[in-house]
Amino acid sequence: xxxxxIGEVWSSGNAYAETWRHYLEANAxxxxxxxxxxxxxxxxxxxxxxxxxxxxxxxxxxxPVLTNQAMQRPDDTVAAMEEFLEFTRExxxxxxxxxxxxxxxxxxxxxxxxxxxxxxxx
Length: 122
Description:
The chain is an all-alpha fold. It is 77% helix and 0% strand. It has helices at 6-11, 15-31, 35-46, 54-70, 74-91, 94-110, 115-121.
C-alpha cells in the first residue's frame, strides 16, 4: 500500500479520489485489525477531510480515535478525540456533533466502563 503526503495527493490530479482511497483502505485495515496501516490511512485521509462531504469527513475522524484506542495509545486517542469534537463543533450541525459524542462514549465502553455510555445514551 502506498501512502501519499499532501503534496503528492494534490499533484496526482485527483485529491478527492485519493482521499477516498485512503479512507476506504483504512477502514478495511481496521476491520482486518491491521492497525498500523489503518492509522496511517486515516491520518493521510484526515489531512484532506475538508474536500469530502460532511458525513464522510465525520465518519473518517472516528477512525483515528478507534484505531488509537485499539492500539492502547491513550494520549493519541485523546488528541484524536479532541480534534474530532472540534471539527464537528465547527460544523455547527448537531447530528454530526452527536456522532462525535457517541464515539467519545464508546471509548470507555471498549475498556469495560459502562458509565459514560449509559450517561450518553440517556
